[in-house]
Amino acid sequence: LGSLIFAAWISAFFLGMSGLPDPGHIGLVILGVALLLLFIKQQGRSTHPLIHFQALRQNRIFSRSIIAGFLMYGANFPIVFLLSLYLQFIHQMPPSEAGQLILIQTLMMVLLAPIAGRLSDRYEPRIIATSGCFCFAVGFASLLWIDMDTSIDLIIAALVILGVGFGLFSSPNNNAAIGSARKDRLSIAAALLNLSRTMGNMMSTAIVMSLFSVSIGSAEIEPSQYPQLLWVIRVALAISCCYALCAAYFSLTRGKVH
Fold first, then answer.
1. Kind plus residue range of the DSSP H or E element containing 54
2. Shortest CA distance to 106 belongs to which of 146, 157, 164, 174?
3. Which of 52, 86, 153, 205 falls 20 to 30 Å from 186 in CA-CA distance?
4. Quick check: 174 and 186 in contact, CB under 8 A?
């Protein structure tokens, strides 16, 4: 029953978000929220719930690590999607070249994540992860006034900062979350951590699609719509910056692991 309600609320909510502000889709969003509340209530009464909300509330380190992961992965999605569109439409880059440029962020993550993970075995993960959140927010802040004439050098610098931030965050956050779980609950902890990442990506996808739906609609992006595209990018990056700052709060206040 819990699985069915979970699938129903996710389907209704995200299908509704994809078509805002259409009245029918608003109804789906409301239905999704109602089903989510029903899911939380049903899980509290279930003998074998999918998600032990009570256990999450009792484990501050794990619950706040989950929330921080949700927010950071939610903030990360617009980088790949929106900057790709920006580079292709505004700077007239071919898709392959735009993709290679965005991979700078991934490269920095790949280089730093193992180092940050090892450091979090010796030092407080919340300090390392929180510094990554703030670095991530700085990367977004540097792009908030992106326009038609923004230089590629600034975008590269922002991608480097974003990659450093996420590289500092991801491994220490996972380390803190898994390290705070009991040994007989490690598989459940790993599943919830993965769920938070997936839900973060889905939520940010829905928000970006809603912004596109409101500002551009289903029309093909043309030069006359570049101002609307820039508006969507700025708003999405501002939301991502707020996500990163909120993640920093939950990361810093999760408590000590060592």
1. helix 53-58
2. 164
3. 205
4. no
pTM, two decimals, is 0.87
Distance CA 75, CA 84 (A): 15
pLDDT by position in tens, the chain (length 258): 888 999 999 999 988 887 777 788 889 989 999 999 999 888 888 888 887 777 777 788 888 999 999 999 999 888 888 888 899 988 889 999 989 999 999 999 999 999 999 998 888 888 999 999 999 999 999 988 888 888 899 999 999 999 999 999 999 999 888 888 888 778 888 888 888 888 888 888 888 888 888 787 777 778 888 888 889 899 999 999 999 999 999 999 887 776
Rounded Cα–Cα distance for residues 205 and 219 (Å): 19
User: Which of 172, 161, 156, 154 has the alpha carbon at shortest distance from 138?
Assistant: 161
Q: d(Cα 104, Cα 110) in Å, to the nearest integer?
A: 10
Instruction: Please say whether the beta carbons of 155 and 143 come within 8 A.
Output: yes
User: Do 40 and 53 touch, CB atoms closer than 8 A?
Assistant: yes
Structure tokens at 58: 């009792």
User: What one-character-per-residue DSSP string does 3-29 give?
Assistant: HHHHHHHHHHHHHHHTTTTSHHHHHHH
Determine contact, residues 200/72, Cβ cutoff 8 Å: yes
